[in-house]
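Q: I have 223 residues here and want to know how they pack in 3D. Can you give me a structure?
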Amino acid sequence: MDASGDFRSVSLFTGAPLRQAIAEDRADYIPIFLSDIPGLFLSGAVKLDGAFLQLSPPDAHGFCSLGTSCDAAKAAAETARVVIGEINEQMPRTHGNNVVPLDRIHAFVATDRPLIEHHPEPKTAVEARIGELVVDRIEDGSKLQMGIGGIPDAVLARLHKKRDLGIDTEMFFDRIVVLVESGAVTNRHKVVGAGRIITSFINGTRRLFDFVHDNPMVALLSL
């Protein structure tokens, strides 16, 4: 059933699935920093009638976890007039300020399905060379933030010999797991969140989802 004529997407943060629709004027895009979106919801500048969230099953205390995506979802869960949930058995339970009380959810559907995985694209020769040049400038004990793309991945791929790195990052992906397992990331010298990786959303493979599940080393916070 084609319902494209019944809905129009107005996106505050867009990606590949919506770019063609925006280019063809079938959808709209409002340019804004991702970190500014929660404030729009919390201030009431953008009033949400409904929030659709994918959540982990509730724990013994009646709290669901936002799992892989806290970023703007936490503010949406707190401010929307109606909260609709997909409670997915395969959503990892993550730590941090990312829980939603079960009694906050007005209606939900229970599922048991794999999360969508993101596998990194092969690095180009240029990206690999940039990674080689950047890694020499990163000292032991440095605190890192990673963005999306081949260059951050190329840099992280070459950091396994570093020590006591700390992570405060918008996005958490598979390469960071490798660094933790190699001993490069300890978060030992961080002033805020010592001993923990602080992130806002998780984007990767099943290996990453399994790593963050009930892992107190990882804390998800809203933007």
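Q: Anything worth noting?
A: The longest helix spans residues 125-135. The chain has two domains: 10-111, 125-204.
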